Amino acid sequence: MKAIDLEEMKQIQVDILKDVHSFCLANGIRYTLIFGSLLGAIRHKGYIPWDDDIDIAMPREDYEKFIAEYSHKDYHVYDYRKDADYHNPYAKIADTRTLLEENVCMKSIGINVDIFPFDYMFDSKEECSAFIDGLNNIKKIFRIKLVKPGRKNVWWKRIMIRLAKVAMLPFSMKGLTEKEYQKINTLTNKDAAFVALPVDPEIDAAYRSIYPRRMFENFVKVPFGNEEFMVTADYHQWLTQMYGDYMTPPKDVDRTSPHTLSKIYWI
Length: 267
Known about the structure:
38% of the residues lie in helices and 21% in strands. By secondary structure, the chain is of the alpha+beta class. Helix 4 packs antiparallel against helix 6 (173-184). The model has no long low-confidence stretch (mean pLDDT 94).
C-alpha cells in the first residue's frame, strides 16, 4: 500500500467535491461550504492552512435526494441507514480506493468529505435551542462511544475514558443515531423561520448553526484553490455568528491537525 501525504489527501478531497459540485448543479441540489471550509474559502481562498478536511451542508430535502441518487465508480456515500458499520448522523462521501485511519471507534473508510443536513426548525431561536438541548444527552453518550484513549491523553484521562466507555456499554452507536433521528424526523415545518444543524456532534456549534431560513435561498460561487464552489450568499452573517471576527486569524491557534488522523494510503 502506498502512503498518501496531507497535500495529496487534500487534492483527493477537492476532487470529490468537484464531482459533488457537478452532480448538484446538474440535478438542482443546493449545497454550501460550511465551517472551516467556508471560512477558508472566504479568508484564504482555499483551505485554512492548518485544516485538513472539507465540510458541506444541504437543506434536508436536497440532502436526502443526494444520498438517494448520487453514484460514482470510485466514490461511495456513507449513510447510517444503509451502511452497517457507519454510525454518524450525517453522511460522508469517500474515495473507495483509499483508506484513512482515525483514532475513533468506527470502521475506517476512505478519504472523504462530510455532508451535513440543515433541518427546518421553529419560529424562534429559543424553540430551536430547546430542541438541540433535547439531543445533547444522546450526543454526549455517542461521543464517549466514539472516542479512543490515545497517547495524547495523560494517564488519568485514559483511565477516565475507559471507565466511561464501560458505563456506556448498554448503548450502541447505531441505536444512538437512530434515537437522534427519531427526534429530528419530527421537524417537518418547511415554513419555519429558522433552520439549524441539529446533527452537528459539536454541541456549541449546533447552537451557533441556528439561522434564518433565507440563509439557504441564495447561493454564490467563490474561489477555493484552483476551483470554485457554492456558498450561501449570506456567508458574512453565517461566519460572523459562527466565528465572530472571522477575517482576523487568531494568534494563538493550535496549528496542528484538529483531527485524529493516523495513516492514509492507497489500497
